[in-house]
Amino acid sequence: MNSAVAAGKLHSNNAAASGFDYKSAVRSILPRLAATTDESDKLRRLADDAANALRESGLARMITPRQFGGYELSPSHHIRACADIANVCSAASWVLMVCVAHDYIIGRFPEECQREVYEGDADNLVAGSLAPQGVIERVEGGWRLTGRWQFGSGCDHSPWFIVGSKMANPGPDDYIIHHVMVPRADVVLDDTWHTLGMRGTGSKDLVVTNAFIPAHRVVPTTPTFLGLSPHAKAPTYRLSVYSGLPAMLSGSVLGMAEAGLKAFVEATSRRTTPYGVVKAQNPIMQKRVAESTAEVAAARRLLEDMCDRFDALMAIDQPMSAQDRIQMRWDACYVVELSRRAIERLFAAAGAHGLYEGNKVYRAFRDINTACHHAVVDFDAVSNLMGQFRLTGDLGENPRAAPFA
């Protein structure tokens, strides 16, 4: 066995022995999440009981700093948990995925900021939007922030928000992009979330106008996202953000695909045409099921391999190389692409009943096709990055701006 992988498996075993069993935590809330799926969809935000279940289970603090009641686990636990939850509720999986991914970043902020966010509420769900859609400028004692951010998944349940922003009038040595922690009192939620899929995530716009931000709530993006923050006190926070986020997202999407495939097979095995033809005996239908099953299974194997690599990187605890970073992002992107292809092939054969709200194949189709529009798994963009790196060894990164992988 490769020594790095062996070290990773040792780390994973040690994490499981730390007192938190994420598998049991997931199993304990699946019935509650399944029962709230339709409610979340209708509300266009995560149902209150679903959010409560995520918090009460301990899953919301898998990557929260141990100093404030969290577990500081490897991203692998979070990825697998989100995949399992997506088998019953895409909205709950997505909100958990996004909010715990933000914990993955907040652990790199100054301790004073972490204390404000977590002390007394380690189970909170921290929403936000990482794209630099706001502007910060230096003022006496800190910063002034203004902006509008799209896609604030889980915002209705969040006491704090993390947002990306560009610096106004940067100097020649300044980092251009920063990430900022903002309390709920400074954020207005604008309900713009009318979409094809992922309706239950409540991914509304976040609006901030001239909010004062103390200096300890602002960090430069490039070193923070590369795992080089001086405030990172555990291996979790020394991994690349641009590798972790797409990997976490891919777990949720894969779980949706697994649910859609299962629903299609169950429905098709008993479907007949109005003329009495048994769909399960149709060779074309059989071919579709075979291909989609292979794609979903391949995506699951790739996801598991990514999880093992994260555990190995946690054990080594060194900055991720450009090769590791782009490979992880590409693999995550490919998990999403395989999931999308598999479900699109099945949805095309789902028949007229597949067009109705409540049909599980339809839900998987619309949710996956919405989720795969996220920038971190944009197939064309990440394909170009991977191809560029393979051919030139260069990612074309600007050291003053956010890295690409």
CATH class of the largest domain: Mainly Alpha
Sheet of most strands? 7 strands, mixed
The separation of the N and C termini measures: 28 Å
Proportion of β residues? 5-15%
Furnish the topology, listing elements before pairings.
Layout lengths: L2 H14 L5 H22 L4 H9 L18 H12 L3 H17 L4 H8 L8 E13 L2 E11 L7 E8 L9 E7 L4 E3 L13 E11 L3 E3 H5 L15 H28 L14 H34 L5 H26 L12 H12 L7 H14 L13
Parallel strand pairs: 1-3
Antiparallel strand pairs: 1-2, 2-6, 3-4, 4-7, 5-6
Can you describe what's shown?
By secondary structure, the chain is α+β, with helices and mostly antiparallel strands. It folds into three domains: 3-123, Butyryl-Coa Dehydrogenase, subunit A, domain 1 (Orthogonal Bundle), CATH 1.10.540.10; 127-220, Butyryl-CoA Dehydrogenase, subunit A, domain 2 (Beta Barrel); 236-392, Up-down Bundle (Butyryl-CoA Dehydrogenase, subunit A, domain 3), CATH 1.20.140. The longest helix is centred in the last third of the chain and has 34 residues, at 283-316. It contains twelve helices and seven strands.
Distinctive features:
Butyryl-CoA Dehydrogenase, subunit A, domain 2; Butyryl-Coa Dehydrogenase, subunit A, domain 1; 14% strand; single chain; disordered N terminus; globular; Butyryl-CoA Dehydrogenase, subunit A, domain 3; 7-stranded mixed β-sheet; 405 residues; 3 domains; alpha+beta
